[in-house]
Write a structure and sequence with these properties.
With 325 residues, the protein is of the alpha+beta class. It has helices spanning 2-31, 258-301, 311-314, and strands spanning 39-53, 58-73, 82-93, 98-110, 116-117, 123-124, 149-153, 158-170, 173-193, 204-219, 226-238, 245-256. The protein contains three helices and twelve strands.
Length: 325
């Protein structure tokens, strides 16, 4: 019975050690995923911004704008491997109490790598013809590395490289900083009256639109969540012949508000706890329990010696010399 218990404990110990290793190296990567039914609202704020207001058909300078981003997951459209989220962004001029711009974005992505995938009626401002690829920027891979990632830029409608640029700390969390710098790049065109941009004639003209921007993301590498984001943007219309700026559509910097940073940290902390549990605590507990069970099993499983097998009894079993008469 003792030997049977020892063999059983040894087998259990080996099993627990394997479970600990698999949980650390394999299972964690499959269990940890971005949620299907996400809901989060954040805001960015910018001061001294210049933009062209379509409502009054003129330039506005020195304005303070607040950008509100609302993200909500479409759980019914997601699967075990793919999530579908919708984002609604809205820019409001709080200086002049005037709406400026809004946009919609529906995107599908891998629930572990955060790579965008083409499915599930993904679209940008209603256009499903735009092929979305790279990272969404709202999410980064679980286990983000110190490397360069392709991040989808909605203004350019294509991905652009975001380079690793160092580390920082937000609320005690070590984050990786990534910078996506876009030099002046053609981003479509607009048709508008020539007089509006100081060109001769009363007819409509088509001017190329250029985008320049630097977006900075502070990402928790464990969870893949950006805890802070800053966007320094400039969009202009240029003369198609000379390349000179004809109209500034937007020029300014939008930064996450402190409350939005706190919101992201509050979302991030429980996910860090899940990762700690799956990748550290459970493997450690399983591994230690396995080692203890294995040692106990080996000790109990060793065959016991009978009394006649003890060294001190060995001499008594040998033939004794006859006593002399």
């Amino acid at each position: 019975m003792r030997r049977f218990i020892g063999i059983t404990l040894a087998g259990l110990g080996g099993f627990l050690i394997v479970v600990g290793l698999l949980t650390r190296t394999y299972t964690g990567g499959h269990v940890l995923k971005f949620p299907l039914n996400e809901y989060v609202k954040t805001q960015s704020r910018g001061t001294d911004i210049t933009y062209f207001s379509p409502s009054v058909a003129s330039k506005v300078s020195g304005a303070t704008l607040v950008a509100t981003y609302t993200v909500q997951g479409d759980a019914a459209a997601g699967t075990s491997s793919t999530a579908v989220w919708n984002e609604f962004s809205y820019l409001y001029d709080v200086t002049n109490l005037t709406p400026f711009q809004w946009s919609t974005w529906r995107f599908a992505f891998d629930r572990h790598t955060a790579d965008l995938v083409s499915c599930c009626q993904a679209n940008l401002n209603g256009s499903s013809a735009i092929r979305q690829s790279g990272l969404a920027g709202l999410l980064w891979p679980i286990g983000t590395q110190k490397t360069t990632y392709q991040v989808f830029n909605p203004e350019l409608r294509r991905p652009w490289p975001a380079k690793f640029a160092g580390t920082a700390t937000i609320d005690g969390i070590t984050v990786y900083r990534f910078v996506e710098h876009v030099p002046p790049t053609r981003a479509g065109s607009q048709n508008l009256p020539a007089s509006l941009v100081g060109m001769k004639g009363s007819s409509m003209v088509t001017l190329p639109q250029y985008y320049t921007g630097t977006s900075t993301f502070w990402v928790d590498p464990d969870t893949g969540l950006p805890l802070n984001t800053t966007q320094d943007l400039k969009e202009t219309l240029r003369d198609p012949a000379t390349g000179a700026e004809r109209l500034v559509l937007f020029d300014g910097t939008l930064r996450f508000t402190p409350q939005s940073v706190r919101t992201m940290v509050n979302i991030d902390n429980p996910r860090r706890g899940q990762i700690q549990l799956v990748e550290v605590t459970l493997p450690l507990v399983a591994g230690l329990a396995g080692v203890v069970a294995l040692i106990a099993g080996i000790l109990l499983g060793r065959p016991r010696r009978g009394r006649g097998d003890r060294p001190e009894d060995a001499d008594t079993n040998l033939p004794q010399p006859a006593l002399g008469r």
